[in-house]
Write a structure and sequence with these properties.
The complex is a heterodimer. Helices cover 35% and strands 24% of the residues of chain A. By secondary structure, chain A is of the alpha/beta class. Chain A folds into two domains: 222 residues, Rossmann fold; 97 residues, no CATH class. In chain A, strands 6-7-8-3-9-10-12-11 form an eight-stranded mixed sheet, sandwiched between helices. Chain A has a four-stranded antiparallel sheet with strand order 2-1-4-5, covered by helices on one side. Chain A is globular. The N and C termini of chain A lie far apart (52 Å). The mean pLDDT of chain A is 92. Chain B is built from eleven helices and twelve strands. Chain B has an eight-stranded mixed sheet, sandwiched between helices. A four-stranded antiparallel sheet of chain B has the order 2-1-4-5, covered by helices on one side. The longest helix of chain B has 18 residues. Chain B is α/β, with parallel strands linked by helices. Chain B is 31% helix and 22% strand. The radius of gyration of chain B is 21 Å and the shape is globular. Classes of the chains: A alpha/beta, B alpha/beta. The complex binds adenosine-5'-triphosphate (2 copies), iron/sulfur cluster (2 copies) and magnesium ion (2 copies). The site of one iron/sulfur cluster (SF4) has 13 residues of chain B, from helix 9. Chain A: It is a peripheral membrane protein. Chain A: InterPro entries: AAA+_ATPase, ABC_Ni/Peptide_Import, ABC_transporter-like_ATP-bd, ABC_transporter-like_CS, Oligopep_ABC_C, P-loop_NTPase. Chain A: Keywords: ATP-binding, Cell membrane, Membrane, Nucleotide-binding, Transport. Chain A: Its main location: membrane.
């Protein structure tokens, strides 16, 4: 059975004055109805760029895109990458929707939220103004805005950050899309509000059996919402697998490094040094030869004949349903980790 | 028992609001910091946490005397500095320093790293032993930067490296106390740990006292001996780190801790979350009584009328709540 969205070998690059920015490189991922895929990675790793390509939101003139993004519609499979702009317009909002970190930038300051939400409905439905507004109230109510029938007449600045994100969710879901892409939807919010919004997305997903892609840099958020995870580094997916596999038996040294570097609330990490990953991510204009993570990787020296700095690893199946872009096998990685932990403890 | 390097008593910092549409002469006042009392001991690291707008930065900036406090005492090394004028403040400036969240905007883009750090010495008319250049090189090495890069400009460094420059600048005059305002919030996950470790090392090595401001509780837990939790300009709870995280007594602390997403799916699935209703009220118009009462699941009539006092319930553990956990 095919998944609702299947992204295949997506490459997005931007020609700039300094050179070609290879923002995503052979990126493939998929998400099924009712499933949540988290895409996690550091700033600039290509999370937004890949999903903007799926939504057809890149500027065609200044962006090179290749690859496929199949949407499995009842009427047949559609490739979003080669689709015409008017086809995409018909699908956006109706079959797929995206919300962003900063809801204020997506809302018009001079129109009431009701008008803006209704507008999203009118794009794909024929009906009276009154019907549109009634639908807007229904949606505001659904996303937990108290007093929806009154608040529908308010302007965006009259809402708090968390409520604006609720408004965005209401607007993006008004036509019952089957795919919701949420790009750092809670990054600008406080933790107590963040947990409300994450819960809301989970509840709505269940109610409407949506496919959800959650883009985040926060492994805590990933742990909380995801069924499956893609870890991105320097424009590539370096590891992908089920949630528990990624958190408890990750194979890629970068994933392991990230998890080890986190200060944790639950265990008493008081007095322990964090295990930081040395160095910084590479420039996308001038990627290192071989594995992009090699300059920072503590495992590279265990790989023979300079392979890591000469040959780019492919995304390979390492364990059942778990892929990693690394020359090492799963058993090598856990063996070397043991060695390294031993070395740290013994000084 | 170690003595205090800083003692803050009933500190208030109220900002005059903009003259809005309101009639009459009344202008809305933002009570950004509204009567906070705490201390920082010599060499101690105190974390300050709370949600956006609760007054963390304002506490930090007021303690540094970057703002003129509305009222209250700021006793630094035994001397009340709250009313000192800038000139009289000068002799304290070298012992107290600040590190900012945004390493990009806090460094002058037209100055080399060397001259940015040098300026700390110049402003205070101090000539370090062995000369300024040597001292700057030493500082760069201390924060993990290549001393050869002394003539580079801020934009030639990554975010984490720029934060190191900010730290080097703060260390120049051997401060005894540093306010670090969200020093790792703007950094990537893999870089945060590097900076946290660096601050950790510096604190231990030089016995610098820290007021460590952050909204990320896991970072605070890692770096602080004691933690202060603020909400809408007031202190809700204050306790040794271990006690606060293990057994929070204030409902707000409990909710805050429970809202932090943990990077461990099994623990996440097993634990029960407290979902607070509603949003943060505006600090220009805080609720009467306990400021947390509009979102607190334990609120009763008393909470809506009477402000709970901050009481010490155990050694070094105090909180402001009528009905603690
Ligand atoms: N229009 C553009 N022109 C040139 N470079 C671009 C453009 N859009 C994005 N990039 C570059 O592509 C890379 C990937 O960007 P992307 O926005 O996908 O990162 P991200 O993983 O979403 O990061 P963040 O966590 O910061 O949002 C970055 O290096 C970015 O600078
Ligand atoms: N210079 C100022 N003039 C007027 N109001 C101010 C000023 N500085 C801060 N405030 C207000 O005081 C309150 C507390 O702000 P502060 O920056 O101290 O919060 P914070 O806890 O540091 O928040 P954040 O986590 O967002 O940094 C906010 O409502 C803010 O808008
Ligand atoms: S391929 Fe080599 S450098 Fe890359 S992650 Fe694997 S071990 Fe490290
Ligand atoms: S005083 Fe009342 S409202 Fe405030 S935290 Fe305690 S129980 Fe809640
Ligand atoms: Mg992004
Ligand atoms: Mg602040």
């Amino acid at each position: 059975m095919s998944k609702f969205l299947e992204v295949e070998n997506l490459n997005v690059s931007f020609p700039t004055e300094d050179g070609l920015v290879q923002a995503t490189n052979e990126v493939s991922y998929s998400v099924g109805l009712g499933e949540t895929l988290a895409i996690v990675g550091e700033s600039g790793s290509g999370k937004s760029v890949s999903n903007l390509a799926v939504m057809g939101l890149h500027n065609a003139g200044s962006t090179n895109i290749s690859g496929h993004a199949w949407l499995d519609l009842p009427s047949g499979r559609v490739d979003l990458i080669s689709a015409k702009p008017e086809e995409l317009r018909a699908l956006r909002g109706k079959e797929m929707a995206m919300i962003f970190q900063d809801p204020m930038s997506a809302l018009h300051p001079f129109f009431t939220v009701g008008k803006q939400i209704a507008e999203a409905w009118h794009l794909h439905n024929t009906g009276s103004k009154r019907a549109g507004l009634a639908r807007a109230v229904e949606m505001l109510d659904l996303v937990g805005i108290p007093d929806a029938s009154k608040r529908v007449n308010d302007f965006p600045h009259q809402f708090s950050g968390g409520m604006r994100q609720r408004v965005m969710i209401a607007m993006s879901l008004i036509n019952n899309p089957s795919l919701l892409i949420a790009d750092e939807p809670t990054t600008a919010l406080d933790v107590t509000v963040q947990s409300q919004i994450l819960q809301l997305i989970k509840d709505l997903q269940k109610e409407f059996n949506m496919a959800v892609i959650m883009i985040t840099h926060d492994l805590g958020v990933v742990a909380e919402v995801a069924d499956r995870v893609c870890v991105m580094y320097a424009g590539k997916i370096v590891e992908t697998g089920g949630i528990d596999d990624i958190f408890y038996q990750s194979v890629h040294p970068y994933t392991r490094g990230l998890l080890a570097s986190l200060p944790r609330l639950e265990q008493s990490s008081l007095g322990h040094r964090l295990l930081a990953i040395p160095g910084t991510p590479p420039s996308l204009i001038n990627l290192p030869n071989g594995c992009s993570f090699a300059p920072r990787c503590a495992f590279a020296e265990h790989v023979g004949s300079g392979l890591c700095t000469s040959t780019t690893p492919k995304l390979e199946l390492k364990r059942e349903d778990q892929w990693a872009r690394c020359h090492l096998g799963a058993s090598d990685v856990s063996r070397i980790s043991q060695l390294q932990i031993g070395a740290t403890i013994n000084g | 028992m170690a003595e205090n390097i800083l003692e803050v008593n009933n500190l208030k910092m109220h900002f005059e609001g903009k003259r809005g549409f309101s009639f009459g002469s009344e202008t809305p006042v933002v009570k950004a910091v509204d009567g906070v009392t705490f201390n920082v001991k010599v060499g101690e690291s105190v974390g300050l946490v709370g949600e956006s707008g609760c007054g963390k930065t304002t506490v930090g900036r007021t303690v540094m005397k970057l703002y003129e406090p509305t009222s209250g005492e700021i006793i630094f090394q035994g001397q009340d500095i709250s009313k000192l004028k800038p000139r009289a403040m000068k002799k304290y400036r070298s012992s107290m320093q600040m590190i900012f969240q945004d390493p990009f905007s806090s460094l002058n883009p037209r100055h080399t790293v060397g001259s940015i750090i040098e300026s700390s010495f110049v402003i205070h008319g101090i000539t370090p032993e062995g000369g300024v250049k040597e001292a700057v090189r030493g500082l760069l090495a201390k924060v993990g930067l290549n001393p050869e890069h002394i003539n580079r400009f801020p934009h030639e460094f990554s975010g984490g490296q720029r934060q190191r420059i900010g730290i080097a600048r703060a260390l120049a005059l051997n401060p005894k106390f540093i306010v670090a305002d969200e020093p790792v919030s703007a950094l990537d996950v893999s870089i945060q740990a590097q900076i946290v470790n660096l601050l950790d090392d510096l604190q231990k090595e030089f016995g610098i006292a820290f007021l460590f401001i952050a909204h990320d509780l896991s970072v605070v837990q890692h770096i602080s001996d004691r933690v202060i939790v603020m909400y809408l300009g007031k202190i809700m709870e204050m306790a040794p780190t271990f006690d606060l995280f293990l057994k929070p007594r204030h409902p707000y602390t409990k909710a805050l801790l429970s809202a932090v997403p943990v990077p461990d799916p099994k623990i996440g699935r097993a634990r029960e979350k407290i979902l607070l209703q509603g949003d943060l009220p505006s600090p220009a118009n805080p609720p009467k009584g306990c400021v947390f009462n509009t979102r607190c699941w334990k609120a009763q009539d008393l909470c809506r009328t009477t402000v709970p006092e901050v009481l010490e319930i155990a050694p070094s553990h105090s909180l402001a709540c009528h009905f603690p956990e």
